[in-house]
Specification:
Blueprint lengths: L11 H13 L44 H8 L4 H6 L1 H4 L1 H4 L5 H12 L15 H15 L2 H44 L14 E2 L2 E2 L5 H15 L4 H46 L13 E2 L2 E2 L8 E5 L8 E7 L5 E6 L4 E5 L8 E5 L13 E7 L2 E6 L3 E6 L5 E7 L4 E8 L2 E6 L3 E6 L6 E6 L5 E6 L3 E6 L3 E6 L4 E7 L4 E7 L2 E6 L3 E8 L2 E9 L6 E7 L2 E6 L3 E6 L5 E7 L4 E7 L2 E6 L4 E6 L2
Helix pairs in contact: 6-7, 8-10
């Protein structure tokens, strides 16, 4: 049986040539290329992940497109996803078909996540493979090694602080030494004058030798006395030796201290160079010279990191509980704090910090709320903030953050969702999920008692509401049917939840991640994962090609959303992380240190 070939003729003559070549080709054994485990990313004997028929490209009768379609797809799988999506369709129609072949995208996804991982975790029907692969490639390029780089920067900063402390101690020593010399000189200037004719040699009182004021005068006088009367008493010589030994010891100690500071500076510089070299994968090998040479050759400097970190100025005076990127492109950040305020930040300006746009507040208010701001939600220009003062305040981002409305709940508001333009959902401490219409004066539409304890997290779409409670249950409610579809009992309670496509991801109070599928109103647990968090998972974001988590254990983690998740980076923070938000590749976190930090692509 002959090996399948791709016909590439543009006209009948070309087609005839292709048929003639196919007929004249000798019979060959079936190729075993596809059965090798490394060739197509599948184990021997495994079928291709999709049963779709491969498209048949058409082009010249020779060259790349004369190869079997599987080989063309294999070659294209090594190109960046962005190139396959945007460039190949402009080359020719045949190569453009590569981007339409789901088999090629599944092979690419398997190469990115690893052969042992399952991807996607949820249903495959209607899954957007090109977008997922593109996002995973960008995530890998940006975040791989970012945690190690951040750790090196923290260590470098700590070394610099150690050197500064050593230098400060040395300056203090020098100041004390100078102060002691000054006191000695003052005593010298104020010493009493010796009457003429009185020898200043010293005198002995009951076996104790009195030491004269000036050592030089003592030596001169001693020499004169020695010439006149012979050797000095032994006490005078011993006193001189003790003084000289003490002075020499002090000078030696100062030299040691100075040498220690110089060595610390040298070590700090050397370690800094090695850390930089480690970032360039050049730390192994012979030691670097002063000019950066290694065995006569130089190593090219490493490119700047793909991400830049912004630390927003101190706009809050208490812990930041929630953060939310709005506007669609990660250009504006909202932060809610225990200082009862909501701040809006402009991230579009260059530099290492953002700019405070507004602190939201209504007429007659000294702060945004009268209690802790605990949660934020947004849709289009509408921003909602929920507080411990049992209110939800609405703000118009299109009108410089003007107040748009006030909703009064009956308990502290712990979570919010805006599944539609004018529909607001609120989970409260009194075990209820409430539905509001933001357009009317009496906004409450329905209040649902779905749990037996406080509602901690909430997600929704146009039809379904999913809520998690401290009673360790997850409830799925059908808004259109007006009834509860499922109530799932867990062994822990969920604090954060994300719902996109047909997958639901959540983080619990034990540091575990949970994955569920949601199809046609049927909610199904899939897996739970230990990704290394040791405390509450306070924030989670999942998209087709990315997974971000943060925890009260002071870490932020970036993963590929496969089963099990492939962790690309772990960032360590100085305080617990209370929440995160991701939009257009920009990551913002809410910190227990009264600040907001942002990571975004370097501009």
């Amino acid at each position: 049986m002959s090996e399948p070939r791709v016909t590439v003729g543009q006209d009948e003559a070309g087609a005839g040539r292709g048929e003639k070549e196919a007929k004249s080709a000798p019979l060959k054994q079936p190729s075993n290329e596809a059965s090798r485990p490394g060739q197509l990313g599948l184990p021997p004997g495994s079928p291709l992940p999709s049963a779709e028929p491969s498209p048949s490209p058409s082009a010249e009768g020779s060259g790349l497109l004369s190869l079997p379609w599987e080989m063309v797809a294999r070659i294209a799988s090594h190109l960046p996803a962005q190139c396959v999506i945007t460039v190949l369709p402009q080359v020719c129609h045949a190569l453009g078909n590569v981007g339409k072949d789901s088999t090629a995208w599944q092979l690419r996804a398997r190469r990115l996540t690893g052969p042992r991982a399952s991807f996607p975790v949820g249903p495959r029907d209607g899954f957007d493979w090109p977008s997922a692969c593109l996002e995973m490639e960008e995530l890998i390029a940006c975040w791989t090694g970012q945690g190690e780089r951040a750790a090196r920067e923290a260590e470098q900063a700590e070394r610099e602080r150690e050197v500064e402390r050593a230098q400060e101690r040395e300056r203090d020593r020098e100041a004390l030494a100078e102060e002691g010399i000054g006191e000695w000189e003052e005593v010298e200037e104020g010493r009493p004058q010796v009457d003429e004719g009185v020898e200043e040699v010293g005198f002995q009182v009951e076996g104790v030798m009195a030491v004269p004021w000036d050592g030089e005068e003592l030596m001169e006088e001693g020499e004169m006395q020695q010439d006149r009367e012979g050797d000095l008493p032994m006490g005078v010589g011993e006193g001189e030796e003790r003084q000289e030994a003490a002075a020499e010891a002090m000078m030696e100690e100062e030299r040691d201290d100075e040498q220690g500071v110089l060595e610390a500076i040298e070590v700090e510089e050397r370690v800094g160079v090695l850390a930089d070299r480690d970032g360039q994968d050049c730390i192994a090998g012979p030691r670097l010279g002063r000019e950066g040479e290694r065995n006569g050759s130089s190593c090219a400097p490493s490119p700047p990191p793909a991400l830049e970190r912004l630390s927003l100025p101190s706009g809050h005076i208490a812990e930041v509980n929630s953060v939310l990127l709005v506007g669609g492109d990660g250009a504006v950040c909202a932060s809610g704090s225990r200082d009862r305020n909501v701040n809006l930040w402009d991230l579009r300006d260059g530099g290492s910090t953002g700019r405070l746009l507004h602190t939201l507040g209504g007429q007659g208010l000294f702060s945004t709320h009268k209690g802790w701001v605990w949660c934020l939600a947004a849709r289009g220009p509408l921003l909602a903030s929920g507080s411990f003062d049992s209110t939800v305040r609405l703000w118009d981002l299109g009108a410089q953050g003007a107040e748009r409305g006030l909703i009064r709940a009956r308990a502290a508001v712990l979570c919010l969702a805006l599944p539609q333009k004018d529909v607001l959902l609120a989970g409260t401490y009194d075990k209820k999920v409430s539905v509001y219409d933001t357009r009317v004066a009496e906004p409450l539409v329905k209040s649902l008692r779905l749990h037996s304890n406080a509602v901690l997290c909430l997600v929704a779409d146009e039809q379904y509401i999913l809520s998690g409670s401290k009673d360790r249950t997850v409830v799925i409610y059908d808004r259109r049917a007006g009834k509860t579809l499922q109530k799932l009992q867990l062994s822990s309670y969920l604090l954060s939840m994300c719902y996109s496509d047909s997958e639901v991801w959540a983080g619990d109070n034990r540091g575990m991640l949970h994955a569920f599928s949601m199809q046609a109103g049927f909610f199904k647990p899939l897996s739970q994962f230990d990704v290394g968090h040791t405390s509450l998972v306070t924030g989670i974001h999942r998209s087709p090609g990315s997974l971000y988590t943060c925890s009260a254990d002071r870490t932020i983690k970036v993963h590929l959303p496969c089963s099990p998740p492939r962790t690309l980076c772990t960032l360590h923070h100085q305080a617990g992380v209370n929440g995160l938000s991701v939009e257009a590749g920009v990551l913002a976190i809410a910190s227990g240190e009264m600040c907001v930090e942002v990571w975004r692509a370097r501009r």
